[in-house]
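We read letters as residues; the fold follows as tokens. A sample entry reads:
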Amino acid sequence: MSPREDATVTRFLVDEAATVRLGHELATMLAAGDCLCLKGELGSGKTTLARALIHALSPKGAAPEVPSPTFTLVQTYDDTRIPVAHYDCYRLKGPEEILETGLEDDLDNRLVLIEWPERVASCLPADRLTVRLAVEGEGRRAVLTASGTVAERLARFEVIAGFLDASGWGDAGRGVIAGDASTRRYERLTRDGETCLLMDMPARPDGLPVKDGKPYSRLVHLAEDCRAVVAVNEELLRRGYSAPAILAHDMDAGLLLIEDLGDWGYGRMIAEGQDIAEPMLAAVMVLADMAGREWPTEAPLPDGSSHRLMPYDAEALITEADLLIDWFWPLVMGKPADAAVTQSYGAAWREVLPLAAAGRPVWVLRDYHSPNLIWLPQREGLARVGLIDTQDAVLGHPAYDLVSLLRDARLDVPAEVETDYFDYYVALRATEEEDFDLPAFEAAYAVLGAQRAAKILGIFARLSRRDGKHGYLRHLRRVSGQLEAGLAHPALSPVARWFAGHLPKSTRDTAIAALNPPS
């Protein structure tokens, strides 16, 4: 569908609960900057729908009073997941009156709900969603019409509704789970005391070529559709690990229902000041166990096909490290790197990456860190560690996931704590493998730690400059320090010399401090 074509969906709402449920559904689709127009005669349910939507956007257990704004004209809500402005234009005599209320600013910064929008039609944006409600029998008929760029989202909205109906979860309560840097979208579904997660992961386009005629996702082997999730999770489950089980799927549509492993993420536990020594030891045990197994290059899918896991080779690692040159360098230096700087950077990495080549590759999850680990103390052994965000798994060196865990980009891990867990991992490996080569593993750990830090500096800079997600800048100092820790290993001498000559720690620190002024 062209993003400029209108889309229309019709729903029959059998009772008041169905109207409330539609409001909850709309809360999963709409965002700040959207305009939702509510049409219908008095008593048709416009305020009921608006109230349900605002409650769905409110923090759990903190639903505000939502009075009809008939007399105040506008009511704003700032404690919701996205800020909301609720307008009622019934009493207006003309569109010029609404311009005095700040509507233009609200349309830029809030989700705007407008009852009786026909009275201010000339002030409405072209891109909007209109819901026309009409009493019909014992229920209501709702006709949803999306104009402009909202049309594609409404079409997706209806595909998801059909998938949930077919899976038996169509009447579930729905709530969006706050995302991180991912392009995937998640909802928690609740029904009769049960929960599961909806993963919305439509196949994404490859994007523009960045090297050798290939887009970035293809060069670094990122999952391009949800088949990777199904294949990787099912294989991990077969081997006794706690990845979310796949409860239902429409792989062509990019929709999955997956097991809800709960909210006890490692990051949350640390933020709440809980003792995570046992969870961390268990996470290290999982990695040591994975390092001792043989891993396939393909994992089967329910339709009889398979998902291939690609090698995490030097080209992929260099492409990731190049994000520092592409995004972090301009952020720090104020201009793009010239060809000589870029060439010498790549040459330095090519000297050291052979030290991180795995003699016996294992599955590497790549983002094995606090946001993606869930503590499941009710389970036993290795199954106590829930593994999410598995779709980008590749075949590579086991040191990569260990350094992801122990040098977490979002959390401070004291050097002595990192050393303790590292030593524990090494002891586990050495117990099972007589020929475990500690110096070689230490070198690989240093190389991959530095590579990962360089990549993340580039990713966080990109999230700020390209996507407007400036909150990631607060992690730059930590990640720069992790880069420095990796560069201290003698194996990294060529890369360390490059940074000393072109982007030393002092330069990085000064620029990062300017990007993160004291509040």
User: Anything to note?
Assistant: The chain has two domains: 7-155, 199-515. The first helix runs from residue 16 to 29. The mean pLDDT is 93.
